[in-house]
Amino acid sequence: MSQSPNKWHQETIESQKSKMEKTVPISPLPSDIATLTLPNGKTIQLPVYKGTKGPPMIDITQLQSKTGYFTLDPGFSSTGACISTMTYIDGDKGELLYRGYPIETLAKYSSYIEVCYLFIYGHLPSQKELSLFEETMVSEMMINEKLIEFYKGFATDSHPMAIMVGVVGALSAFMHKDFDVNDPRDREQIAIKLVAKMPTLAAYAYRTALGLPIIYPNKKYSFIENFLYMMFSTPMNDFNVDKVIVKALDTIFMLHADHEQNASTSTVRIAGSSLANPFACIAAGITALWGPYHGGANEAVLNMLKEIGNKENIPKYLQKAKSKDNCFRLMGFGHRVYKNYDPRAKVMQEMCYSVLEKTQRANDILESQLAILLEQAALKDDYFIQRKLYPNVDFYTGIVYEALSIPTSMFTVMFAVQRSIGWICQWMEMMSEKVQRISRPRQLYVGEDQREYIPIQDRKEEEKSRVCKLPMHSSLFGLVKV
Ligand SMILES: CC(C)(COP(=O)(O)OP(=O)(O)OC[C@H]1O[C@@H](n2cnc3c(N)ncnc32)[C@H](O)[C@@H]1OP(=O)(O)O)[C@@H](O)C(=O)NCCC(=O)NCCS
Q: What spans are recorded as compositionally biased (Basic and acidic residues) (predicted)?
């Protein structure tokens, strides 16, 4: 990067270099051979790899070239797409490790900044390393003043996630010439800049939506305190830091920091595999996170609890979630990987009590009671038992956010801020590999076979035209129901 290196880089350039090299994943040697017999009677031997933990994996990279067959796995239920050293999930045990450390231990004794350091450098920092790292992170929280202009261009009722997609993507316009994605030191700086700027971008999205003046980060506050400061302070009053709230938020940040190859992380890796600008790749990850089956679930849970309203309605909504006649699901329940209680949900549930005890807001207490009753009812229900559907991290997150005065539309933005460290370190990990290949899945084509082109004058009219007719000027006013 062309800018002069900051204090962190001056002091650590050599000492960290060798440690960072340990974060580069090394392909293990095959531990076994699998023999596959194909419908044409041909057999092929495929190498099997065993990681430090987790099920063995059959390497099928040679399958097509040796047999002419591809594999089909929509939704990637059985497919691994990378080799990683970052995060491990045992879905049956309900276990989550960040670089080998259990999430419960980190949540209890560590901090988000420490977890960021752990992901970037592969090891936990000493006190000196941590202090210097946090100082650097805080000093990188400011954003280019011109970027603030972007916020003024959004419609006043814009969803903050829409704003985040735009402004994070726009970071690539400010940072594109002065780094080399193939240089590990540049990648490290990209990671620090991204993670440091995310809370600022999020707080500005919130404040501009409300028409509130923007608050700049301040070096006298910690990273997490700065986020609260930029979200909730006013230029007219002193800002009081509440330690219970800061600890709660710090823990939520840690719980969401990474979660191996989920939809948004895979999106970042796929976008990054084309060597696209890393900030643009993160914007792609934000779009994947937005949906209610992924990061948008925290917002959907709270809306669902409000809709259920009281405990008498629980059976009706459970029935609705079980019925296949509608697309309603019990939000905050179920997970592709966890077939047991999500360990993050346990930490979240405990934290929910401590935050509610502190804030004492009657509505939040009622919502948490409703959530507990809903969870208890679902966990006793055969439908949820048979499908191993347990509460995931998002089941209680929304209640805690609401108690912290974070508005519902900001919930998924919070997730994006917290997950930025996971996304960018997964990107760094991918970029550090010696052999990089563009991501390019295959498909089973079931469309038309090759057919004859008919000139337009010879084509028959469809019985009903499929082109919808839009009123004049509809292009200015969004979607029109026709
Ligand atoms: C997370 C999620 C997308 C995982 O999906 P998945 O691994 O693809 O699982 P499937 O969609 O194949 O679901 C398996 C079965 O459980 C059911 N199911 C899954 N989650 C359910 C839920 N929350 N409520 C009701 N039924 C659910 C499905 O309908 C399906 O039933 P079937 O076998 O009778 O068809 C899914 O559980 C879900 O939509 N949960 C709610 C959203 C949420 O909380 N997301 C946050 C994840 S951290």
A: 8-22
